[in-house]
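User: tokens in, sequence out, please.
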């Protein structure tokens, strides 16, 4: 059976690249062609916070060329993703519209969490190699022109992920006014990084040793670390430091010639090298793996997974849930209470079945909402709903889009706040009607679920939910008096019925 021909386009800080893949269940991803065009989009965005018309027209010309190449390869599907240099431009909405009109290409402007999750899927596409590394405490350092993402894994579980606004191109832009005034350019670059990295170290690095670093980025990362063929490269910390000393001993122009690097981007070399060294020294790992992947690999792998062309042994949903649980722990959420909500809500969703459009992604959002529903109490007991809304909206949860975080934030907020007008739910500028319906569905389920553990005493020993005609029968076996929980449950019956056209009926069995 022939594979799917797919084009992955990456709009980055200093280049626009496209890779054409053949995706098949038997061979996985097979690269057919890779093209790249230099475009310093970040130079304008990080300095002026906008995409100039000159840069926009250059991008249109590049994408028009890409369209011709896609036609030659008879590409059946594509995805074009833009990262921080595009996202941070205040006129990026206009730019997306203009590109669509001129080229027919739809640009997906990724949130940072979406971008890093796709990058992380690029590494996961390496299968067993990736799984082997993250069995021990491992840090993934994802370096871009605008920022750096550090994700810590321990025993195959995502422990924490944080974004630092320390991208190589951003640092170069900040240092440009001082280039002619100092011979210690590397020291200035390090001073800019110190505060962000020190804050990360204090908040997230424990005494547990980090064994491995997985270093990823774009083609520039592979180029300067002499991984030109995009092949696996494993080196020791000392080998990296030897390379670093060599880079610092010669001029960027000499290194550019040595590495066959385009002269116009050689000025990014020093801040990039300093950034790598600083992070590697802080994390302390002795082994560094450069898998040689780029965002285009992740875009293609993500497409293959979503369309069930390829499979993976790694559980990405587990990573999203793990990230949300770590946020919950930071805000002192009760794990026992959360587990009680997860049990009840799972039973309700199973009983509702497919008739109410609660697909796998919706069920994932519900689980994240259960994990984070009481985080606002850490800030204020009297306004916990609003505080939870703000915490969830501003927290980066790897793998979730901005819209999905907004859906979760609203679902949690309205657990204890009445919805007087569905059209007034915050964020309606990016929320569609189907999203508003999902928010109310999640809220209705969360209200009933929390009611059954209203006293935080985990009285429910077992729960079973079944749909029967126009009723949702919820049978619980309890070990103590259930008067409080039953009373609060009854307060939420009408709202649930309004949303699902099913009337919840609670049946209580006491264990003797």
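Assistant: Sequence out:
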């Amino acid at each position: 059976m022939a594979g799917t021909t797919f084009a992955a386009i990456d709009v980055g800080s200093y280049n626009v690249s496209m890779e054409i893949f053949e995706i098949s269940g038997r061979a996985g991803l097979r690269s057919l062609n890779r093209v790249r065009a230099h475009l310093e989009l970040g130079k304008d965005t990080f300095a002026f916070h906008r995409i100039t018309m000159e840069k926009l027209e250059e991008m249109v010309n590049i994408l028009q060329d890409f369209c011709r190449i896609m036609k030659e390869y008879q590409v059946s599907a594509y995805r074009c993703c833009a990262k921080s240099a595009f996202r941070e431009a205040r006129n990026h909405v206009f730019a997306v519209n203009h590109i669509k009109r001129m080229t027919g290409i739809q640009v997906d402007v990724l949130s940072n969490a979406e971008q890093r999750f796709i990058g992380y899927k690029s590494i996961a596409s390496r299968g067993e190699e990736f799984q082997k590394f993250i069995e021990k405490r491992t840090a993934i350092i994802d370096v871009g022109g605008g920022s750096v993402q550090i994700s810590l894994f321990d025993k195959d579980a995502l422990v924490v992920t944080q974004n630092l606004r320390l991208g190589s191109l951003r640092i170069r832009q900040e240092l440009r006014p001082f280039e002619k005034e100092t011979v210690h350019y590397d020291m200035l670059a390090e001073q800019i990084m110190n505060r962000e990295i020190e804050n990360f170290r204090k908040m997230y690095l424990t005494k547990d040793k980090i064994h491995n670093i997985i270093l990823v980025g774009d083609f520039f990362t592979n180029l300067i670390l002499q991984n030109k063929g995009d092949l696996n490269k494993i080196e020791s910390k000392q080998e990296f430091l030897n390379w670093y000393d060599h880079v610092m001993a010669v001029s960027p122009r000499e290194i550019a010639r040595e590495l066959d690097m385009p002269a116009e981007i050689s000025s990014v070399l020093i801040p990039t090298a300093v950034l790598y060294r600083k992070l590697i020294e802080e994390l302390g790992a002795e082994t560094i793996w450069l898998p040689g992947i780029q965002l285009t690999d992740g875009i293609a792998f993500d497409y293959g997974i979503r369309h069930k062309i390829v499979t993976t042994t790694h559980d990405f949903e587990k990573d999203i849930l793990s990230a949300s649980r770590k946020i919950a722990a930071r805000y002192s959420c009760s794990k026992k209470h959360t587990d009680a909500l997860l049990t009840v809500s799972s039973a309700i969703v199973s009983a509702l079945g497919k008739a109410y459009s609660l697909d796998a992604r919706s069920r994932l959002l519900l689980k994240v909402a259960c994990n984070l529903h009481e985080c606002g109490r850490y800030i204020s007991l009297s306004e916990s709903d609003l505080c939870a809304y703000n915490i969830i909206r501003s927290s980066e949860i790897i793998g979730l889009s901005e819209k999905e975080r907004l859906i979760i934030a609203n679902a949690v907020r309205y657990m204890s706040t009445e919805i007087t007008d569905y059209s007034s739910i915050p964020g309606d500028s990016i929320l569609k009607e189907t999203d508003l319906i999902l928010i109310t569905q999640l809220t209705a389920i969360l209200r009933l679920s929390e009611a059954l553990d209203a006293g935080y005493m985990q009285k429910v020993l077992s729960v079973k939910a079944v749909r029967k005609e126009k009723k949702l029968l919820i049978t619980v076996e309890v070990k103590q008096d259930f008067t409080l929980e039953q009373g609060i449950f009854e307060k939420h019956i009408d709202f649930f019925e309004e949303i699902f056209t099913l009337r919840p009926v609670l049946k209580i069995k006491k264990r003797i």
